Amino acid sequence: MKKALVLLGCPEAPSQTPLAIYATYKLNSLGFDVTITANPAASKLLKISDPENKYISNIVDLDRCLNELNEGEFDLLLGFIHKEAAASFFVTFYQILQIKSIAIVFEKDEDLVEEYANIISDSTDAEVLAVKAFHNPNPVKVKLDKALEKI
Amino acid sequence: MSFCLETYLQQSDDYEVLINKAGFKDCARLIRFKADEVIYVKPGEVILGVRIIGVPPIPIGIIENEKKLLIPYTKPCHGTSVVELPIDKKEIDNIRKLAI
Known about the structure:
The complex is a heterodimer of chains A (151) and B (100).
Chain A: E1 2-7, H1 16-29, E2 32-38, H2 40-49, E3 59-61, H3 62-68, E4 76-81, H4 84-97, E5 100-107, H5 110-123, E6 127-132, H6 138-149
Parallel strand pairs in A: 1-2, 1-4, 2-3, 4-5, 5-6
Chain B: H1 5-11, E1 16-22, H2 24-34, E2 37-41, E3 46-47, E4 50-51, E5 58-63, E6 68-75, E7 79-86, H3 89-96
Antiparallel strand pairs in B: 1-7, 2-5, 3-4, 5-6, 6-7
C-alpha cells in the first residue's frame, strides 16, 4: 500500500482541520495509508473532530516525526501552509523525504499567499496549490481535488 | 546520552534568544550579521540533536572565541527564533562537516 504523509501547520486557520480530514478521506479512497503529522494543538483539533477515527487513524507528533524521518519513507507528502513557519517545515520535510509533494498554500492575504508559494517553489519541485482562503475551505478543496485526480 | 537542543532549552538558562517570532529571512540575516563564521547547511541536518528547519541554505553562526553557536529554531505557531548558546569545540567541528 502506498503511504502518504499529511503535514499540518499551526491550527490558527479554521479551514485546516476540515481540509486535513477531507484530504485524508480522499487519499484513503485513492489507496494511500495516511499518516498525519502535527503539533499538539493541531492534533487535538483533529482528534476531537474524528472521535471514532473514522477518517484518521494515524497521527504522529510533529517533532517526533521530523526527528525520525528518513528519505523515501513515504510516497507522497501533502502539506498545509498558511504561515511562513509552515513553509519552512514543508521545505525541510521535502528535503529529507525527496518524494512527490504537494503544497497547499492558503492565506487570507494574497501577498502572503504569493510569498509562501515562492518560498516553496524556489526550494522544492513540489506542486504548489496557492489560493486565497482562510475560513472557507472550498477554494482549497477545488484545487486539491484537481491535483489528486492526477495522482 | 546525546545532546538535545529541545531538552536543553527547557532545562537551561545560559542561552539567549536574540530574535523571536520572526521570519526565517530576518533570522538568517541576524545570524550572518552577528557570527564570525557562518556555515550553511541543508534543511533537515541534525545539529545538537535536532533537525534544523528552514529554507536552504540555512546559516548556522559560530563565534569561536566565545564558544557560542547561533542557530535558527522554528515552531509552527511561533515562527522562527535565533538562539545563541554555548558550544564546545568538538561540536563546532561536527557542524563544519555538514557545510554545503
